[in-house]
């Protein structure tokens, strides 16, 4: 038993770990669940799952509907955004993403590195824009998406090696799954300052992405998703211009 009244389970897991396991059962495809389903998916005894869910509903971190099912609460979103670096980044980027959007008239995304994946903070879409599987608060693999490739190219060496030595899953037939090919591509991205990833996520689309720096360090990737046959030059130019402006805005808003 740990100190301070943090009752550990028989497996030695802390209360915090169990709460995180409960919250982690929610995904963008599974937004509403019963306490029993949460318990099964989190591998927790039913009584434990019910108690944690009740407490989280009470605290506003989960919300319960009329059918007694729960979803992630708005309070979680409120707390997560409060003072977050992601929010600062998004606010600095948004006006410039809108300009890219107006010029290119396709999808424009902002992504950051999070636990070895690209996490999308924002996405703007044109009504006539082509296919795009990114979602706000959704993730894509680093080695497959254009944003991910930029983030991976500039990631700390240990993270890059971890990704390069793990199995590289094919998202589409054109995803780079050969570590040596990927390694060369990452060096080229660092040298050129952008990536054009044709068909890597979906064969009908090309992702184009550039790095965004804060204090010299790459903190995000700015990207557009184009229909496969669209010329990529204007998108590269618009993204590089926007990244420079976002970087200037981040400089002037440094906390
Ligand atoms: C990309 O970033 O390469 C990308 C993302 C979503 C898509 C297609 C491409 O649907």
| Helix/strand order, N-terminal first | HHHEEHHEEEHHHEEEH
Bound molecules: P-hydroxybenzoic acid
Q: In percent, how much strand structure appears in the residues?
A: 15-25%
Show unreliable segments. 1-6
Q: Tell me the name of the CATH class of the largest domain.
A: Alpha Beta
Shape: globular
Structural class: alpha+beta
- Largest sheet composition: 6 strands, antiparallel
Structure explained in plain terms:
It is built from nine helices and eight strands. The strands form two sheets. The protein has a six-stranded antiparallel sheet, with helices on both faces. The protein is globular. The chain is 44% helix and 20% strand. The chain has two domains: 15-80, Arc Repressor Mutant, subunit A; 83-253, Beta-Lactamase (2-Layer Sandwich). P-hydroxybenzoic acid (PHB) binds at residues 131-134, 145-147, 197, 200-202, 205, 207, 223, 225.
């Amino acid at each position: 038993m740990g100190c301070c009244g943090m009752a550990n389970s028989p497996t030695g897991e802390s209360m915090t770990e169990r709460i995180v396991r409960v919250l982690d059962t929610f995904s963008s495809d599974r937004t509403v669940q019963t306490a029993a389903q949460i318990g099964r998916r989190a591998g927790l005894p039913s009584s434990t799952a019910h108690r944690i869910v009740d407490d989280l509903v009470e605290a506003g971190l989960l919300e319960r509907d009329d059918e007694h099912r729960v979803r992630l609460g708005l309070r979680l979103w409120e707390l997560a955004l409060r003072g977050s670096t992601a929010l600062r980044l998004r606010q600095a980027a948004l006006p410039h993403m809108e300009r890219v959007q107006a010029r290119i008239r396709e999808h424009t995304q902002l992504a950051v590195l999070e636990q070895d994946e690209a996490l999308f903070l924002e996405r703007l879409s044109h009504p006539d824009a082509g296919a795009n599987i990114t979602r706000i608060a959704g993730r894509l693999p680093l080695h497959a998406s254009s944003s991910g490739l930029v983030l991976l190219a500039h990631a700390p060496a240990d993270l890059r090696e971890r990704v390069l030595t793990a199995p590289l899953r094919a998202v589409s037939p054109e995803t780079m799954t050969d570590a040596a090919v990927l390694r060369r591509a990452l060096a080229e991205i660092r040298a050129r300052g952008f990536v054009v990833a044709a068909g890597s996520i979906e064969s009908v689309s090309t992702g184009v992405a550039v790095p965004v720096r804060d204090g010299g360090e790459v903190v995000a990737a700015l990207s557009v998703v184009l229909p496969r046959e669209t010329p990529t030059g204007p998108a590269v130019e618009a993204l590089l211009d926007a990244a420079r402006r976002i970087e200037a805005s981040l400089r002037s808003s440094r906390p």
